[in-house]
Amino acid sequence: MYNIKIIYESDNYLVANKPAGIVIHNGAGEIGETLSDLILKKYPKMKKENWPDSRRPGIVHRLDKDTSGLLIVSKNPKMQKYFQEEFKKHLITKKYYALVLGKIEPTQGKIVSQITRDPHNRLKQKATYLNLSHALGKNAKSRQAQTEYKTIKIFKYKNIDLSLLDIKLYTGRMHQIRAHMFLKGYPVIGDQVYYTKESKKISDKLGIRRQFLHAYKLEFLFNNKKNKFISNLPNDLNDIIKHLK
Length: 245
What we know:
The protein is of the alpha+beta class. The protein has helices at 35-42, 77-88, 133-136, 176-184, 197-206, 235-244; strands spanning 5-9, 13-18, 68-74, 93-101, 108-117, 125-128, 143-157, 160-169, 213-222, 225-230.
C-alpha cells in the first residue's frame, strides 16, 4: 500500500507528494492501484464530477512511475482545465533533482531537442536534434522539448564522476529529463530504461533500482497569490547522497 501525502489542500485543488513505484493512472500495460485510485478513495466526491477523461480524474500533469515528488491534482474539471492551460503557457515552474553519470561542465546549460516515441520500443522516447516526424511517417509525433540544468555538486564514486543536478522543465514531454540526459551522454543513475553499461554498473553498486529523479518544487500563481511548494529528497535517494559524501 502506497502512502500519498497531501501537502496542501484547497476547495479546488491539492498538491500531493507521490512516492516512487506508483503510476498516475492505468495505461501502457500498467495494472494495479494508481494514484488516481487513491485520490478518489480519499475524495469520493470527485467521482461525481463530469471529467473529460474518466481514466484521469483530477490529473493535471504526470510523473513517471519510478519518479517521486510533487503533483497538482484538481478537484473538478474546471480547475483541471485551468492548470493544464497554465502548464501550456509555461506559467508553472517545475524543478527536479537528478543524479547523473559524469562530470557536467560547464555547470549549467539548456538542452533543446525533438522528442518522439522510439520506433523500436514503444515504452521509450527518443530524443534527437533532428525532427524525425517525416522520416518515421505521418503517424510519428515529434515535439520540441526544453530542459535547463545546473550542477549542484559533483561526487567521486569508485573513481567515477557523478553530478547532482537541479533541473527545470520548460516543456513536459514523456520521459523528458531521462531522455535528454541520455542524449547528452549523462544518463540518470538508477534508470532501468535509459542507461549505458557504465551507468548500469554504478547504479547496481549503489543499490538503486529506480531513477534518481525527484520533483522537488512547484511554483505558480493562483488568484493573484504566489504559491510555492517544496519536497525534500525521499529517504531512498537521500541515503544515496549520504553514501556518496
